[in-house]
TrEMBL record:
Belongs to the short-chain fatty acyl-CoA assimilation regulator (ScfR) family. CDD domains: HTH_XRE (cd00093). Signal peptide: none annotated. Residues 1-41 form the HTH cro/C1-type domain. Pfam families: HTH_3, Peptidase_M78, ScfRs. This is XRE family transcriptional regulator. InterPro entries: Cro/C1-type_HTH, HTH_RamB, IrrE_HExxH, Lambda_DNA-bd_dom_sf, ScfR_C.
Length: 444
């Protein structure tokens, strides 16, 4: 191995024992010599054991007296990634236990079940950068074969009928008893709610086609993932089918070429592929094919209360794992400018700058209830911003930059009027004779 990498055996031994840093040059040699994707090194330990996630864990008030420093967290994350992930899993289970009714967990005797299926699946997908080559390959072949310049849904419907004998019919919400879509395998009938918006009806057909067309691939991927319980297994299976549905509607090569041609204009891409804003935004985060990568976007979806219901990262953006988002990010302002794109340059505490765009979307099901909007937030590193249609006319060198952070409990910024809680482990600098911009000044 040392010969393959062009280094001495003793130096390789130091690398293996973590006594020397693995340089960028060594990583590139590893990638070339052993034909691997460098991102696997980050993916193997998953998202849970990263220094950012551990910092959020140890920001919990239960650890405040320990005064755990940043360097200790970095050492644990770098030198013992499996232990770091174990700590994160334990804390996740504790958080879920706090939120659950008292009787849950006591009767089961299975503490692993305290990590919810949603949490497990989110971490599994995040650790793989939301990109699954096997599904991409199959979906690109099928999507290309079903191409139709006049309709997106019609060739999908025909494929279901001709290949699997499945009829598609629109049904009333009363008939579906509140479901958005139901497949009856005995009658070979797919029922779609009449309340679904057109793009979501199309996606529903693509979803059902994915379940049938890619059943062997999805089953193998689920088995390889080894979900811890039935709930996680079913949710992961559904997530893979959703992924494939988006890839059928927006085949990889054709979609990436259109993104570059239209400068990542969401509205233009929606029209081109018969998709909606959320579907296109989500697809942005999956373009990680080796040798043909798109812009590494991150994406969040929130409701008006700030609850995060989707989170995908194409690059290392400091998401809060256990909290919401920074109120200084204009993602929240999108609700006050419904239907408009709200752009912003932000800077995280580590000095990295990102170009972001936020806009509201409608829920898939039409409803008479108020507050039916959600907000999508997309962002990428500032170095990619010049490629974006929504950045046209913005002076990226001189435009104002908004400092943002992760959850308040782990944000190191001193002068923030939006701070909701003081950072864990930092003594407050409050005095009755002096008020500050931040409601919780602390000793830096």
């Amino acid at each position: 191995m040392a010969a393959e990498l062009g280094i001495s055996p003793s130096y390789l031994n130091h690398l293996e024992r973590n006594q020397r840093p693995v340089t960028a040059g060594i990583l590139l040699k590893l990638a070339e010599a052993f034909e691997i994707d460098i991102r696997q090194f980050a993916a193997e330990s998953g998202d849970q054991g990263s220094a950012e996630q551990l910092a959020e864990v140890f920001a919990d008030p239960m650890f405040s007296d320990l005064q755990i420093g940043r360097q200790e967290i970095l050492d644990l994350s770098d030198n013992s990634p499996s232990i770091a992930e174990g700590v994160s899993r334990l804390y996740t289970a504790l958080r879920e236990r706090r939120l659950a009714p008292a009787e849950i967990g006591d009767s089961e005797g299975n503490e692993r079940a305290l990590i919810t299926p949603e949490t497990w699946v989110r971490d599994f997908i995040g650790a793989r950068f939301n990109h699954f080559p096997d599904l991409e390959e199959g979906a690109e072949t099928l999507g290309g074969a079903l191409g139709d310049p006049l309709s997106v849904a019609e060739p999908l419907r025909r494929r279901l009928k001709e290949a699997y004998g499945v009829e598609v019919r629109v049904a009333s919400p009363e008939e579906l008893e509140g479901a958005s879509q139901v497949y009856d395998p005995q009658r070979r009938l797919l029922l779609l709610s009449s309340l679904l918006r057109p793009e979501n009806k199309t996606f529903g057909i693509a979803y059902q086609l994915s379940l049938l067309e890619f059943h062997p691939i999805i089953a193998r991927l689920v088995d390889q993932a080894r979900p811890p319980d039935a709930g996680s297994r079913h949710l992961l299976h559904m997530s893979f089918a959703n992924y494939a549905a988006g890839a059928i509607m927006m085949p990889y090569g054709k979609f990436l070429a259109a993104c570059e041609q239209y400068r990542w204009s969401i509205d233009r891409l929606c029209a081109e592929f018969g998709a909606n804003v959320e579907q296109v935004s989500h697809r942005f985060t999956t373009l990680g094919r080796q040798g043909a990568r798109g812009i590494p976007f991150f994406m969040l979806r929130i409701d008006p209360a700030g609850n995060v219901s989707k989170r995908y990262a194409g690059e290392r953006f400091p998401f809060s794992r256990f909290g919401g988002t920074c109120p200084r990010w204009n993602l929240h302002a999108a609700f006050q400018a419904a239907g408009q794109a709200v752009t912003q340059l932000i800077e995280t505490p580590d000095g990295h700058r990102y170009f972001t765009v936020a806009r509201t979307i409608e829920r898939p099901i039409k409803t008479e209830l108020s507050g039916g909007l959600l907000a999508i937030g997309l962002g990428c590193s500032i170095e990619h911003a010049h490629k974006l249609h929504c950045a046209t006319g913005i002076d990226l060198e001189k435009a104002p930059v908004t400092p943002v952070g992760p959850a308040c409990s782990i944000c190191p910024r001193l002068d923030c009027a939006y701070r909701a809680t003081p950072p864990a482990g930092r003594p407050l600098a409050v005095h009755e004779h002096r008020k500050t911009i931040s409601p919780f000044p602390f000793v830096s």
